[in-house]
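User: I'm putting together notes for a lab meeting next week and I want to include a structural view of one of the chains we've been expressing. I don't have a solved structure, so I'd like a prediction I can at least talk through. The sequence is below, exactly as it appears in our construct file.
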Amino acid sequence: MDFVSTRIITDDIERLVQFYENIGLTATWYTPDFVELSSPSCTLAIGSTRTMALFGAGAATPASNRSMIVEFRVDDVDAEYRKLEKLITFVQAPTTQPWGNRSLLFRDPDGNLINFFTPVTEEAIRKYTKQ
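Assistant: Thanks for the context. Below is the predicted structure for the 131-residue chain, given as structure tokens.
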């Protein structure tokens, strides 16, 4: 098995894609209802609610996530904070976590929690240099 992407379903695909482009990802539009934002390690897909008719109407409810965090490893979380602080309301300013990552938390326009993090301890750095 190969984990390749996470998909967010939204009522406003253009707004959500614009947000993710503003924080540093590049969008590839496959249809007006489906976009992928890819990095070297994973893909974040965004689909409009119209795509849910293909999977089962009502299977996903947009803007209702309160249990998942979408995480992005960045080179310097403090630099990202300074770059975004005038654009975004943060849930948590940069903080070094007990597991060795320095992270900051904020929400996308649909309320999905986003974590930007940078490994800062030797163990955390080692974990991500194996990849």
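A couple of points you could mention at the meeting. The helical segments are 13-22, 52-55, 77-84, 122-129. The chain is about 25% helix and 35% strand.

User: Perfect, that's what I needed.
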